[in-house]
Automatic annotation (TrEMBL):
SMART domains: WD40. Gene3D superfamilies: YVTN repeat-like/Quinoprotein amine dehydrogenase. GO terms for biological process: Cajal body organization. Belongs to the TCAB1 family. It comes from Trichonephila clavata (Joro spider). PANTHER family: TELOMERASE CAJAL BODY PROTEIN 1. SUPFAM superfamilies: WD40 repeat-like. Pfam families: WD40. Residues 1-12 have a biased composition (Polar residues). This is WD repeat-containing protein 79. Coiled coil: none annotated. Residues 1-36 are annotated as: Disordered. GO terms for molecular function: RNA binding. One of its GO terms (cellular component) is Cajal body.
Amino acid sequence: MAVSCPNIQQEIQTEESDEKVDPNERQKLKRPYPFPSSIEDSLNDEIIPEAVDVLDSIFASLCSFSENSSTSHDISIVENTNNISSSEKEVEEAKSDEIEIIYDNNYTSISVNAEDQTENVSEPFEEIYDFTNIPIQVTGAWKEFGKENNYTRGCKWAPDGSCILSCSDDNKLRLFNLPEELWDFTKWQDMPEMEAVVKISEGNLIYDYCWYPLMNSAEPSTCCLASCSKHTPVHLWDGFTGELRCSYRAYDQMDEITAAKSLSFDADGARLFCGFDKTIRVFNVDIPGRSYETRQTFAKKSGQPGIISCFAFTSQNRSISAVGSYQKTIGIYSEPNGELECLLEGQKGGLTQLQFSPDGNLLYSGGRKDSEILCWDLRNLGDVLYCLRRSCVTNQRMYFDISRCGRYVVSGNNNGIISIWDTYEESKALECDEFSVLKPIQFYLGHNDCVNGIRRALETFL
């Protein structure tokens, strides 16, 4: 692992251990923490299969809430008056019917008094999920991917949580609306299978795709998504009709169209970042065509080499962006000028995903054929804060996601297992030679194949 900054000559390296491993100990090294017994039996004690199947269906699994939480953001409470004097108790009882807790988008509770409408901000609401029980599968889509070998390549919730976008090997993007029965748990037994309401076909292999970050179904103009595929420009699609809205064309030195390998909107949705070999091209979303800003990431043996494979932005700090490459490096860039501020090295595989925590202080990274999700603290760059281990033996993009409160990280594995980590239990991390390893708090069997896409929307994980 190494960190290099243009203004700070600093490098931290760790050598891999050459210690020989006893064959009898290999299984223990593959599995530093136990699986639940039910999952042990289903896996036949095999954690990383030699032959990796791929995901052939998508599913939605809802995590049950704790007894003290509710699906509604307006929650009435009863004050505890056991330790209050009799006079104070009468006052509190008189006001108990006039107080309610309202949660904002960041799960911060605000106490509101009906008489004077004063607001007192309290601690963030964090206990959203109850992981004592295995989440249940309520619906899915199978017929849409019935074609032989038509495996899915990830899924992404719409920013407003109203629908799901999937990508598959037949070079199609499919959009699924959530069944109305989903919001009434009494109807879960009769939940229909999801069917694609919009299908978008690309001519070649789809490299990457993403939603417009400000997408809102109530505003049709914001309902759009972008995709990039082999030998084609970047396309912006209408989320309602599936029609092409516009194209963003990048050209090489021979004045021929070159395809982007990755793409992402910034947090404001004003610019579209596209990754190429040693180059980032930035399009103004309002100006389609061939008008763009070119940023060379590597020149004169300096900078960030390789194909730019992923991006990450945070609304908490719009002055920075994170950029990953297939050369196993992460670049931290200042915005809007795009200057490289710091280069992080430590991922064992080419970067496939970067994601900031909701507060913008932590950066999570994952790579292809890399079993480690690394957590970087942007306030103290140079050391990995902790590591989350999963089974990842494929070149596919294997996505992970973070809960809205920033506490839980969820990822799929090659063996069909879904792992959940509680990042607030950092103190319980196992100390290893390189960095701390955080143990999952729960496993459950999600598929019989590789789970390469997992996403959350509001209080729901997919």
